[in-house]
Write the structure tokens for this entry.
Amino acid sequence: MKKIVIVTDTYFPKIDGITSVLKEIVPRLAQTFEITMLAPDFGATWHPSEVRLKRSRFLCLLDYPLVRISLGNLKKIRNTVKAAEAVFIQGPALISVIAIYYGRKYQRKTVYYIHTNVWELYKNNVSRIVRWSGALLKKFMVYWYNKCDVLLVPYRNYIDELDALGITTKKEVVQLGVDIEKFKPTDNKVEAKQKLGIDPNCIVIGYVGRVSKEKNINVLLEAFKRLREKHDVKLIVVGSGTEMDIFKDERNIILPGFQKDVAQYYQAMDIFVMPSLTETTSLATLEAMACGIPVVTTKVGFLSDYVRKDYNGLHFPKGNAYNLILQLKKLVRNPEMLKDMGENARATAMTFSWENTVKKMKEVLEKD
């Protein structure tokens, strides 16, 4: 079996977009390849073959602790990459960049799946005083992307964006998937709401994911506060993060925090909102759609393609709470539209398959 090292800058037990992808793809890839995980040590063992790196006690980027810059960590990365036949990176931080360097040095095929636009993520999470440094980060990442053999991207238009930046590395489109058996519509919406202590007659608006600046949750909160003045609505925010304080002393809001089983929360929702300033695929949006929930999102990343206006969801301009209110009112006042869009959302989600995702990844990794 071909030896593959999968490099990740985040790891279990932390749950985010990248670890959610790892949970789906690694067991499937392990049927074909001999897998070693190269990851920061967050205290949990997840895969039978792991090389874990000590974390820094001081360095942190966008709420993610960075690995310690030490000879011990560098030696582990070097030896792990050298022992592999291919390097499959799930970035985007320090471990990934060092792995690219050693992949290049030892002439190992280096494949990078771009999960997020890291400089946009950075720009939206730092103060205006240091926002200029995002341009330096962009140049830094463009340099290292050009040191890879193949870049995998989640949607076709992203290739054009990377080309415009001067990234000449070969690019392949590999869409992410969704588990349509785990995330599916409830048989009884009344019971799904009652299970969470919610009045079944109440319209439930929801969000699942990190509560951080780039997700722009304050826009959702502002729209919800205006909506509850005239409508019987409740807001569920499943997740945690640096911006949780905005919900302090607010009413009609359920904050269950981080949850391993989020399907029951999706199933209690009538509308899902993704107000993010930057996304690539947005697995949370796909999961909500798989549960038969119409979505209201910003037109960022792949969301501008698979969320189709008046078919399976609606769009609103980034940061525009007033327009978000209009879109939510349209759905709240029209039960038939909610129902039809929910059915169409489920149909859309069923076209996304983890089996197809891994099949394409295997094709790329197997090539010499």
Q: What stands out?
A: The CA atoms of residues 249 and 255 lie 12 Å apart.
